[in-house]
Structures are given as structure tokens and as C-alpha cells.
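Work Package 3 (structural annotation) set out to generate three-dimensional models for the target panel prioritized at the project kickoff. During this period the team completed the workflow that converts sequence records into C-alpha cells, so that structures can be stored uniformly alongside our sequence database. As a representative example, we reproduce one entry of 615 residues exactly as it appears in the project archive.
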Amino acid sequence: MQSEIPSGGVDVGRPEGVRFGLAGIQTIFGIDLRTLALFRILLGLYLLADICLRLRDLTAHYSDAGIMPRMAQLNHLSAGAVSLHLANGSALFQAGLFAMAALAATCLIIGYRTRVATVASWILLLSVQNRNTFILSGEDNLAVLLTFWAMFLPLGARYSVDAVLDRNLDTTDNRYFSIATMALLVQGMSMYFFSALLKSDARWIPDGTAVYYALNLEYMATPFGLWFRQFEPLMQGLTYYVYFLELVGPFLIFSPIFHRTLRTALMVAFMTMHIGFWAYLEIGLFPVISIIMNLTFLPSWVWDRADGWLARRRVDGLAIWYDKDCSFCLKACRLLRMLLFLGDVPIRPAQQDAQIGPVLEQHNSWVVTRGDAVSLKWDAMHPLVQASPLFRPLALPMRLAWVGRLGDKAYDIVAANRQFLARMSESWFPWRPIPIRAGRFSNGLAGIFLVFVTIQNISTLPFANWQLPRQFILVRQALGLYQNWTMFAPHPELTSPWPVIEGRLLNGEPVDVYRGMDGRVDRTKPKFVSAAYANYRWRKFLSNLEDQSYLPVRPFLAAQYAHYLCRSWNADREGGERLFTLEIAFNVEFTPPSGAPRVASERIVSSYDCFLLAG
């Protein structure tokens, strides 16, 4: 371990034990650089998945032809909030911004210009969330918060293109501490702790019936969740488990006593809880982003053991030789070593060896040696892949004759264009150091925002009764730092709705507008109520129309949705087939206490004339 530690100068790699004082704080609130790399890759993959899922409803959710035209959203956008997506209402413009976000997320995954990619991802994620705020959930809050804190961290210090381009980064210690690492970890646990404080209803404590009520929300419950409802004692036990894990777990995970054991056990406990949420409830990617957050607690000893396991499976005597006058060649070799998890396999200039140098010059090829065996061109890939602890199974098909021919052709193309690739690499992939150490300004800013989000969280508690200053709210909305962890708080919802939207055509015929079908609406309860919604974002929007807590904005939301339904129906219909009127209603089933019968009633939101709406 070198003398200069990237945490600000204090060695955080000391033996396990009871830690107090500065060293203990840095161990408890530090994050391994390899864990940050995992966080970067998974966050980028999450952002790509989020983009793909949003693209399903590109026109309906983000264009002026959808449920929320720009002027409608602007009239209900919080002061301080901004959105690039509000600059233009066409679906093509929105698709262009989605493509930019996908590019930034891809750069984040591979770790290319990581800081810039993180900032761009945060801006575009906040922007798309502000484009339509009526389809958001806790998943979106957590994602933008994690991306915000990621901007303060050296995410590209390990397993990245940026790391390949830093000649000296391999010598830095893996253990890292800054105020931003503390903020990221505290942010994650704040979600659980404040959620537990907001779960104040007796259905949580002392009754233990909250999970029963949650699984009876059939408009969210999965088929597995519906099946699990028969085990009432287990549901009561899970209620207590979730509540006390959220209440006590955030403190124990930062405990200086038995720190290693408690941190690992609680990290696994929180992740298994989210796996349970995913199995029981259709709540989008919330379990995924929550598990990603929990993995930021992955301790160094896990990586150290993994490195030891990988080292035992590496092949001795392996070396990579490159042309010392080819900077591009060195970068390519370093990138390949990283991708194949080859650890400290040496990369050496061929000209330094009296035997290897002439071989490289004669064949115009890089060289890979394994003991006395010498491999060139595409064949040189085989011993490297065979030595890779993860990609070793690919070594066998690489020996196929046709794969070898294609590989040699590809290598010859690269070799023939080496000068061009060298110039391109100097422009796009120059050698550059990655700043690891957090400066005073960065630490100070992260500390200010940590206090900021803590104040925001405390203000959500009923007993706080705080009136936050307008300037505070403007900053909060501008940076996406709003959070109010009220999922199933103070208790799970007690009603489960599904939409019933009947219309009348100009020719007088009834139609099922919601399903886009002719004939009267089928009002019978679906076998799986959750399947009545296209996806979780549509579920969020439509349930807002029925939710009594949305009464102040219900007329606005219902009118926007009715206008969208009328436009969509009449876009490709003429004459008497055009939609004349529609009625938005929901069948709402109240969740009774265990053993009591379930009763559904129809709740009419409003009726609309399509031609008056169009006028």
C-alpha cells in the first residue's frame, strides 16, 4: 500500500475492530473504488433501462400530442424546476434527447469521460422527469439523487476507459473517503429511516397488518403476491421485519462495532427486502435502483477475496508485448487487460527484449508470450482469453478456423490503419490523469448539500411542522433534491382501482374507449387487476385520477387525459365512427379487514364532449 491515500491522507485500510475517531469515520463512511466502479456500471445500465421503458410511451407521455402538452405541464411545474424536454413538443425532438441520454449512460457504463457523462446523465434525467411530473414515483426520486451524488465521486478510477488512460492510477489505494462518499451512504439510508418514521399508522405497529393491506392492492399486486396472501402469519412477520429493518438498520449499518459483519448482513437484508418487493408488487424499477444503492455499501474485503480468487486462476508466465513507438497499441493492450480481468499481467515494449523485438518487426504484430510459446495477431488473443478467469469459456470457439480467418482479417485492417488510429486516439483518448483526491471545494459543496437534504427529509415529518423558505425550495427543485419517502406511509392504500371508460360515437354506438374496442364496457373485475394497466407509469397517472389526495388537480388531469383519448380515437376515424362523448370512471375495491368480503363500487370522475375539448 502506498503512502499517499486517496481519501485525503489517512490510511483507511486498517484491521477490523472497534473504530473511533477519524480513522473509524473514514472506514465507516468510505467506499472502495471498485465498489464505485460497480455503482457506475449498474447506474448506467439502470439509466439505459429507464430510457428504454420510457420510449414505449414516447408520444403519449412526452410530446404535445400526449397526455401532458408542454403548456399544461408548465402551468403545474414547481418553481425552480427546469427541463430541456419542454423546449419542443415533437416526438422527434424528445427522441433526440433520449438518444443523448442513452449516449451519456453508455459512456458512464464504459467509464469514458466519466465526470462529463455523469453530469450529462443527471441533467437529462432531471429534465425528463420534469417533462411529465404526474407519472413519477419514488424510483425517480432515488435515481436522480444517486446520479446527483455520483457527480462528486471518482467513478472512473477502476474498470473504465478513463482508468486505462491514466498511466499511474494502478498504484493508488482502493479505499476511498470523501464527504461525498459519506453523503451517498447517508442518502441511501435516509430513505429507509425517514420512511419508517412516516409509517406511523397502527397497521404497521402494533397491528402488523401493513403487508396484508399492501398485497390486497390488486392494481399493484403480482400473481405471486396474490397467492402469498393466504399466509397471514408470514405477512404479519414481514410487516414487523420491514418496519424494524428500516428503522434500526440505517444505524447498525454505520456501527463502528462489528462493522464488517453488520454492514454485510444489513446490505444483504435490504437487498432481499427489495427482491421481495419486486416479487410481490409491480412497482417498476424501484427495487432495481434500491439494490444499486445498497451495493454502494459493498466492503473492500469482498473485492479483496474476489481478487485473490481471480489471482489463483490466472496463468503464470503470461506477458503482452507492444510496439514502444505506438501509443495506440499500449492503450489497446491496457484496455484488453482490463476487460479480460487479467490483473497485473505485464505489458512490455517488445523492443526491450532481444528475441521478441525482431518477431514484432518481422510480422508487424503484437506478441503474447506464455512461457516459451509465442502467439501473434489474432492467435495472440487465445492465450489471453484462456487466462481470463471470467471469459475462459470463449477460448474454445476462438480456435475454430472461420473465427481465426475473420480475426486475422480484422487484425490486418487495424494494423494497416495504425497511424490513423493513433491520431484518433490522441484526439479522443489522450493520456490523462484522473483526479482522485476530493478538493476542499468539492468536499465543502458535498457537505452543504448533505445538510440540505437532511433538512429536507426532516421537514417531511409531521412533528417537524417546518415551513421551508422559498429560496430553499427553488434550489431543491432546480437540483432535483426533493424527497418524501411516503411509500406505504403512514399506511398502505386501502383502495384498488381499475379504469372503466365508456364512450359514445357520433352514430350513437357505445365503445370501450380505454381498450379501444367497439361495444359496451365490460365492468367485471379482471382476473389480475394489475394487468389492466399498460405499465407502471400509466398506473401512476391513472390512479392519480381516482386518488382522493389528488382532488385539487383531478379536473386538470382528467381533462388532459380525456383530450388525449379523444385525439387518439379520432385520429384515424371519420364520420359516425368518431368519438363524441366519454365518461372516465373507475371501479374501486376497498380492502376490508381479514376475512371480510370485498366490495367494489364505481367512482365517476367526469364526462367530456370531445368536440368541446377540441374547441
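Residues 277 and 287 are 7 Å apart (CA to CA).
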